[in-house]
Amino acid sequence: MGRLGRGSALRRRLRRSLLLAALLLVAFTATPGASSPRSSEHYVALGDSRAAGPSTLRFLNDGCGRTAASYPRLLEEWLQPEFFTFAACSGAKIENMIDIPQEARDGSARPLQIDAVTPETTLITISIGGNDVRWYDIARACFTKEPNEDRNCRSNPETRLAAMESLQPLRPRLDRLLGTLQARAPKALIFLAGHGGTVGDEGCFPVIPASDEDAKFIAEYQDEMNKIIRAAAKYAGVTYVDLAAASVGHDACQPRGVKWYEGNVTTSTSLSMHPNNTGNRAFSRLFQKEIKEEFRKRIR
C-alpha cells in the first residue's frame, strides 16, 4: 500500500475512534438531573409491572404504578435521552401493547403502548410476558399454608399441564410484537428482558411458601419461559437481556440487600412477587452493559 493509502486508512480509523469515544462519553458521563439532553436517543420503555416498578408507597397518578425506582427511570437518568416515553403499565399483556387498550388501576383505558413508538424512536426496552402466561398462578399452585408442607405440585398432572399450556402462546405473541416494533421504528435498538429469577432452588416460608422440590419446579418453569423469550429475541435480531443468569443467588429467599425480588410476603416497599429497588438497580446496570455494547457495534 502506498503512503497515500496508508494515510487514508489511518484517518478512517481515527475518525471511527473519535466517534466511538464521543458516543461512549455520552453514555458513561450522563448525570441525573441534567437540564439538557446528553444524548440524541429517543427512548421508549414498554412492558408490564416489571418495567413500571410499582411500590406500596408511591404510585404516579397514571393508573399504571410507574415509579422513579423503576429500571427505565434509572436508564433515563443514566442516558439522559433527548426524548423519553414511559409507556409500561402494571398488569399489561402483549395484546395491550399492540391490539387492545388496557384498563388501568384507576379504571381508565390506557393507549396502546405501541402508540408511543415512532419512526424517530432509537431505543426500546421491553419487559413483558409474565401476565400472558399467568406465571403467578402456576407458582401459587405450589404454595403451602403452613411451613414444612409439600404440596407436591411438581407431580400434579393438572399443574404440569397448566404450566405447559400457559407457555404455548408466548412465542407467537412475542414474534408479532417484535416484528411490529421493528416495522414502526426501523432504526431502533430493541432490548428484550427475560423474566428473571424470583424463585430459586429452595423455598423459604412464608416468603416463598413452597417445598424445596416444588421451588425447583417453579424455577424450571421460569427457565422455560426465559428460553422462549431468548429464542424470540434471537429470531427477531434484537438484544436479549439475561436477567435470570445474573439473578442466581439473588432470589426472594436471600437476605435484604442481597435479594433482587420480593416473594409472596414482601419485606420492602416493593410489591410481592416483583423486583425490589435493589433488583431494579441491578437490572438498570445489566441494560446499560448491553446498550453500551450495541452503541459500540453501531460504529464498527
Can you count the beta strands?
7
Mean pLDDT: 88
Domain count, please report it.
1
What is the CATH homologous superfamily assignment? SGNH hydrolase
Distance between the termini: 22 Å
Helix content: 40-55%
Rg, Å, rounded: 21 Å
- The shape is globular
Class based on secondary structure composition and strand pairing: alpha/beta
CATH topology, anyone?
Answer: Rossmann fold
**Proportion of residues in β-strands:** 5-15%
CATH hierarchy: architecture: 3-Layer(aba) Sandwich
- The number of helices is 11
Q: Which blocks of ≥5 consecutive residues have pLDDT under 50?
A: 14-23, 28-35
Main sheet specs: 5 strands, parallel
Strand order in the sheet with the most strands: 2-1-5-6-7
Q: Which class in CATH terms?
A: Alpha Beta
Q: Give the helices and strands as they follow along the chain.
A: HEHHEHEEEHHHHEHEHH
Provide structural commentary.
- The structure is a single chain.
- With 300 residues, this protein is α/β, with parallel strands linked by helices.
- The protein has one domain: SGNH hydrolase (Rossmann fold).
- The protein is built from eleven helices and seven strands.
- The protein has helices spanning 3-29, 49-52, 71-79, 95-98, 130-133, 135-140, 157-167, 170-184, 212-236, 243-247, 277-298; strands at 42-47, 83-86, 102-103, 109-110, 123-127, 189-193, 239-241.
- The strands form two sheets. The protein has a five-stranded parallel beta sheet with strand order 2-1-5-6-7, with helices on both faces.
- The chain is globular and about 55 Å long.
Kindly list the characteristics that best describe this protein.
300 residues; alpha/beta; Rossmann fold; five-stranded parallel β-sheet; two-stranded antiparallel ribbon; 11 helices; 7 strands; 44% helix; globular
